[in-house]
Amino acid sequence: MKTLITAASVAALLPLAAFAQSTEAPAAAAKALPGFGANSDISVSDGYARTTGKGSGSGYAHLQNRSDRECHLNGVTSTAAARTELHTNREDDGVMKMEKVEQITLAPGGEDGLTRGGNHVMFTGFHQKFVEGDQIPLTLDFGDCGTVAITLPVDNRRAPEASGAAGMDHSAMDHSGTEQSGTEHSGH
Ligand SMILES: [Cu+2]
């Protein structure tokens, strides 16, 4: 009974519009398709995540700048891991190495990808286990071009993008190629 009275009093004090907004906002957010998100300048699509099974994982997505100015992906954050960083793979004396990337630039109207073997999101120190089909929250910070919050479905069976060299597969590097089996999605 006490709860009922409290809720009723709060509703009476708030303007009706504000009350409606506060109850509808979470529902609207939950409707977003996994792997997709946008603001007025940037759209992020086809996002997914993978894990090596050793407490680290990686995230991939397609980035599109729909504005007429240059936009920069300055960083990524997630509640799913202790550290979430932008990385790239670089070949050094025939050995593939990962290194941190400070910024990814998108030209006006330009596109780029967070891809296997290229720039990617790196999760280390899992707070959330990357179980197949789980949704990993990710916020991409585009500075002046705003932020985009998405969720990445964990898809360890996903084949690398057609453009990426199979030998540069990020997870194969970390995990002796044990995740090379899935080819059923190669039509992408
Ligand atoms: Cu990495």
TrEMBL record:
It comes from the Bacteria. InterPro entries: LpqE-like, Lxx211020-like, PCuAC_sf. Keywords: Signal. Gene3D superfamilies: PCu(A)C copper chaperone. Residues 178-188 have a biased composition (Polar residues). Residues 159-188 are annotated as: Disordered. The keyword Acetylation does not apply. The keyword Manganese does not apply. It holds the Pfam family PCuAC. SUPFAM superfamilies: DR1885-like metal-binding protein. Residues 1-20 form the signal peptide. PANTHER family: BLR7088 PROTEIN, COPPER CHAPERONE PCU(A)C. This is Copper chaperone PCu(A)C. It comes from Paracoccus aminophilus JCM 7686.
